[in-house]
Every structure is written in C-alpha cells, then in structure tokens.
Amino acid sequence: MNEAETHLCIKLLEMQRFSMLMFTSCGWFFSDISGIETIQILQYAARAIALAEEVTGPRLEEEFLNRLSEAKSNLKKYKDGKDLYLKEVRS
C-alpha cells in the first residue's frame, strides 16, 4: 500500500468513527435540540460529513441542513436544527 492509499484508509476509518459517535444515545434523548449532548453529536456529524465530502466528492452538508431544519427548537435563540448547527457547530 502506498502513502496515498494509507491516508485514504485513515480518512475512511475516521469517517466511520465519527459516524458511529454521532449516534451516541444521550444526544437523542432531549427536550430541546439545543442541549449540550445534541450539539456534541452534531459536531461529530459535521466531521463525518467533512471527511465524506473530502473522500467522495459529493456535497452532503446541504441535504443534512435541509433535514435539520425540520427539527424545531423550543428556544427563540434557535429557529431550528439548521440554525443551531450553523450557530454552534459551524461558527
């Protein structure tokens, strides 16, 4: 295996790791989407998306944001999951 293949394998493994971390159960039991646990899993998802885009090419974050926009927040500070993601994860 050459160096480029080694780096690709490492990125794929890291992508898998962050994909698994984003399903941590504590992040999905919440009364509002803006909880610290949910923000943490969104950070994991952001890293998995970034790696997937880097390795495969297609842009995935836009569709992810569209889906997050369906999760409404109880707090006026955040309109929905997309707004939360942009303010707390991507800032």
Our Rg estimate from Cα atoms comes to: 15 Å
Q: Judging from the principal axes of the Cα atoms, what is the shape?
A: elongated
- What string, H for helix and E for strand, traces the elements in order? HHHH
Helical stretch tally? 4
Reported for the largest beta sheet, the result is: none
Summarize the amount of helix as a percent range. Answer: 55-70%
Number of strands: 0
First-to-last CA distance: 37 Å
Strand content: under 5%
Which structural category do the helix and sheet elements fall into? mainly alpha
Mean pLDDT: 93
- The residue ranges in which pLDDT falls below 50 over 5 or more consecutive positions are none
Number of domains: 1
Textual characterization of the structure:
With 91 residues, the protein is an all-alpha fold. The protein has one domain (3-89). 63% of the residues lie in helices and 0% in strands. It contains 4 helices and no strands. It has helices at 3-21, 36-56, 61-68, 81-89. The longest helix has 21 residues, at 36-56. The radius of gyration is 15 Å and the shape is elongated. The termini are far apart. The model has no long low-confidence stretch (mean pLDDT 93).
